[in-house]
Amino acid sequence: VQLQASGGGLVQAGGSMRLSCAASGRGSYAMAWFRQAPGKEREIVAAINWSGASTFVADSAKGRFTISRGNVKNTVTLQMNSLKPEDTAVYFCAADPRLFSAQYYAGGDMGYWGNGTQVTVSS
Questions:
Q1: How far from chain centre, in Å, is Cα 82?
Q2: Which 8-state DSSP code applies to residue 60?
Q3: What is the DSSP code string of 69-115?
Q4: pLDDT tens per residue across span 85-116
């Protein structure tokens, strides 16, 4: 399974940005976004289960970020609004073929990982 992420870049604080990710493969995958800032550990941002019925958003992103599945199978979008400088990080898309709820994947137990995309929020 290969993951192709798009989006990312530089945005001013208070602005918005959308990240998208597409997973290859025939199955249906739970998908998630994680991020890692310099000097910090990787952390969950948001996750969505294989059907889209279950979502999880980290406390740091609640009310600002939304994760959703796209119309094309195994695509996911992370809409990020009201961005803050502390959201600056490398964002990673991940996928998993198991049927767990979105909250399960907050622990980072994902089967497949994509390359990261840099998100920089300037103050």
A1: 16
A2: T
A3: E-SSTTEEEEEE-S--GGG-EEEEEEEE-S---GGGGGG---SEEPP
A4: 999 999 999 999 999 999 999 999 999 999 99
